[in-house]
Design goal:
Helix content: 40-55%
Number of helices: 8
Strand content: 15-25%
Structural class: alpha/beta
CATH topology: Rossmann fold
Number of domains: 1
Low-confidence stretches: none
Number of strands: 7
Shape: globular
Length: 239
Amino acid sequence: MVTGASQGIGRACALQLAKDGATVALAARNVEKLEAVAAEIAAAGGTAKAFALDVASEESIKACAKAVIAEFGKVEILVNNAGITKDGLMLRMKLQDWNDVLNTNLTGAFLLTQACASSMMKARWGRIINITSVVGEMGQAGQANYAASKAGMIGLTKSVAREFASRGITANAVAPGYIETAMTAVLNDEQKAAMTVHIPLQRVGQDSDIAAAVAFLASEGAGYITGHTLDVNGGMYMG
C-alpha cells in the first residue's frame, strides 16, 4: 500500500514495487490520477487498484485500510508517503497551518500504520517505510511545521521498529533531499540554484532514486535493517 501514489515519489514507488512483483494498493485523494497509475501498472503486466484516501481524516484512513485488506487479504508493505507543505516564517505561521501539516504528515502516518499493522502481525512479516525528509534532519527556515512533522516521522519509525521487531516487521524511513517533484516545482530558479550548490553530487535527485531505496527496504535483502533512516540526498546532509 502506497499513500500519495497519484504523483511524484508515491507514483514512482508504486511503479517500482509493481515491477518487482508486488500487488499494489494505490491510495490518495485524487482517484482519477490513481486510476491512470493503475492502468500504467497493468499495461506493464502488474496488478494495482486505486483506493480513495485522505490521510488528514481518521475516518478515511480506517475506511481505506479496511477496504484494502478486504480486497487483498492483508497489507504486507506500507509506504507512508502522502504529505503536504504550508510554508511560512515561524513568527507569522498560523496555528491552522501548523496543525494541518502535522496532522497530515505525521498523525496520518501514525493512524495508517496502526490500521494496517494487525494484518502484518498476524502474518509475522511486514515492511513499514516512512518517507521523511532531509528537512526533518537539518531543519529549514520557513518550514517549521514541515520539518517538525518529518522529524517526528523519524522518531515514530524508531519506536515502531522496536515495538514490532519481535513479529518479524521492520520499520524504516527514507529521507529524500532535493528531488524533482511537483512539491519542489514551486521553487524559483534562484532557490533551486542555491540548493544545488550544497549537493556534493551536484545534481538534483529523481523520484526513481527514492523508489529504488524504498524497493530495497521492502525486499528480503533488507530483512535485518530496522529503525534506520536511509538518506537519499546526493550528500546534501551527512548525519
